[in-house]
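Following up on my earlier thread - several people asked me to post the actual chain instead of describing it. Fair enough. Here it is, all 275 residues.
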Amino acid sequence: MFSLAIFLAFCLCFVESQFPRVCTSDAAFRTKTCCPLWKDKSPCGSLSGRGKCRDWIDYTGRTLPMYNDDRLDWPRHYYDYTCECFGNYSGFDCGDCKYGYQGENCDRKKIIIRREIRELSPLEQKRYFSYLALAKTTKSQDYVILSTGDRHHRETYRFVDASLYDVFVWMHYYSMKPIMINNTFIPNLNFAHQGPVFPGWHRLNLLFLERQIQLMTRDEDFAIPYYDWRGDKNCSICTDELLGTNDDQGLLNPYSHFSFWKVIIVTCINLLFIA
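Reply from S.P.:
Thanks for posting it. Predicted structure:
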């Protein structure tokens, strides 16, 4: 079974990561601080008891090999000060709730009913794919993507806008870049696959997209459906009404929901992990 957030096979050729838009100013990088003001005008909503701006806590576990990788202890490479949210508050500015909670004080539990996609009515399926299309074309107001030639020099940082869906997809792509140990790329090691983090990381990634769509549509009951392939000899959801079929050349059928989706193309840069 897997959740249908549709990881399309894009040709991605630039390094990306998730950055709060408000934390990409020259001042933020100069001070290495990402503690945005909440609506009460205090960093991390501290005046309202939502969180506080705190110094990064160093990892105290066993000694690790030398990783020249900005993803390790994220986002320590870029910021020394970030928000620590209290209780059920969450988000880069503590302005949201932890997954599963809602309300002004994040004190109401919210149970989302996740259903098998084939159990959805035609209207519900249409709404789901409409939401995905809207997320694909709606620019993220909170996050931008980093495209840079050298992670060690702030003056080379360049941030680009992306849609809500593209931010989600490129978070996955960024986690899949090979790890570099002692200046050597290890192609079969990354931060999302082939390890114990696999199920937890992908679940959080999907919850991120789900929450972004809920906020975009103001539909707090929206839930990404799943596909239960047990007993299926073939891909029963590979229809133009769902994921899409192939044409004679093996390309996505033009009648598919996704056949005309666009891809952001940025010049390929391969220097992000080079120390």
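The first strand starts at residue 2 and ends at 3. That should answer part of your original question.
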